Amino acid sequence: MTSILTNVAAMAALQTLRGINNSLEDTQNRVSSGYRVEKAADNAAYWSIATTMRSDNKALSAVSDALGLGAAKVDTAYSAMDSAIDVITEIKAKIVAATEKGVDKTKVQEEIGQLQQQLLSIAQSASFSGENWVAGADGTKSVVSTFVRDGNGNVSVKTTDYVLNTTSTGNVLFGMTSTGTIETSSGIIGTSSGTIGSIYSMNISTFGSAEISMALTSIEAGLEAMTKAASQLGSISTRIELQENFVGALSDSIDSGVGRLVDADMEEESSKLTALQTQQQLAIQSLSIANSSAQNILTLFRS
C-alpha cells in the first residue's frame, strides 16, 4: 500500500542517512584530532586511565629535570673532591721531599701553604645551585630519584640521600657554620691531628722527623677518607645516570601505552571515512528515490 501521508520508505532512508551522518561525523573527528578516545563520553574507562597516566608522565618529566639538577650537584662535588685529592697528593710529595737532609723546610712550607689555600679555594667553589656537598655542616643532602604510584594508587617521590660527616674520617673537606661560612677547623682537611695540627693548618717549617712521620700519617688518613667520599659520589652519579635512563624509557613506555588506548588507527579511520562517504551518497540517493515515489501516484489520476 502506498500512502501520501506516511512515506515509510522515505522515513527508513532518512533514518539510515542520519545514522551514516553520525558515524561520518565521529570518523571525521577521529581523523582530524588523531584520537579514538578524546573525551570521557567516547570511552570513560580508557579516558580515565589515559588522563591519570598523562598526569604521571608530567610528574616523571619533572623528575627527569630534578635528576639533571641532582647530577650537576653530585658531579660538581665529585670534581671538587677529585681535585682536592690531587692537591693532597702533591702536599704528600712535598712532605716526603722535606725528609731529605739539607732541604729547606721553610721553602717547602711556602709551596705547601699555597696548596693548602688551593684546598680552601676548591671547597669554596664547589657549590651548585646554592648547595655545597664538599663543605658543609653535618646533615643530609638529597636528590629526587623517581616518582612512584603503587598498586593502591598512592603516589610518592623517592630521593637519594648523601649524609655529610664533618669528622676527619668523614666525607667533606671542611665544615660550615650556620651562616654559610667555611669552617676550617672541621672536616677531613680541617680537623686537627694533635700537635701537628690539621692538613690545612700544619706548618712543617719546624717539624722534626717524628712530626714529619705524623704529618704523613695524617695525609694518608685524609687521602683514604677523600677517596672513599669520591667513591660514594661516583656511585650516586652512576645511580642518577641509570635512573635518568630509566625515567626516559618509562616515560616513552607510558606515552606508547596511552597511545594504544586513545589514539586513532589512521589507516582504519581512512578506510571508514571513504566507505561512509560512499554510503552517505547512496543514502541521499535512496532518500531522493523514496521522496519521488509519491509523485508516481499522480500518474494514476491522469486521464
Short overview:
Flagellin is the subunit protein which polymerizes to form the filaments of bacterial flagella. This protein has helices at residues 8-33, 44-98, 105-125, 187-190, 209-262, 266-297, and strands spanning 127-128, 131-132, 139-149, 155-164, 175-176, 182-183.
Q: Give the low-pLDDT segments.
A: none
> How are the strands ordered across the major sheet?
1-2
Number of domain units: 1
Name the helix and strand elements from N-terminus to C-terminus, one letter apiece: HHHEEEEEEHHH
Oligomer: single chain
Mean pLDDT: 88
Helix content: 55-70%
Helix/strand/pairing category: mainly alpha
Q: What is the overall number of helices?
A: 6
CATH architecture: Up-down Bundle
Radius of gyration: 39 Å
Highest-level CATH class: Mainly Alpha
User: Could you tell me the number of beta strands?
Assistant: 6
Question: Strand share of the residues?
Answer: 5-15%
Structure explained in plain terms:
The chain is mainly alpha-helical. It contains 6 helices and 6 strands; from the N terminus they run αααββββββααα. It has helices at residues 8-33, 44-98, 105-125, 187-190, 209-262, 266-297, and strands at 127-128, 131-132, 139-149, 155-164, 175-176, 182-183. The strands form 3 sheets. It has a two-stranded antiparallel ribbon with strand order 1-2. It has a two-stranded antiparallel ribbon with strand order 3-4. A two-stranded antiparallel sheet has the order 5-6. Strand 3 (139-149) and strand 4 form a beta hairpin. Helix 2 packs antiparallel against helix 5. It starts with 7 loop residues before the first helix and ends in a 6-residue tail after the last helix.
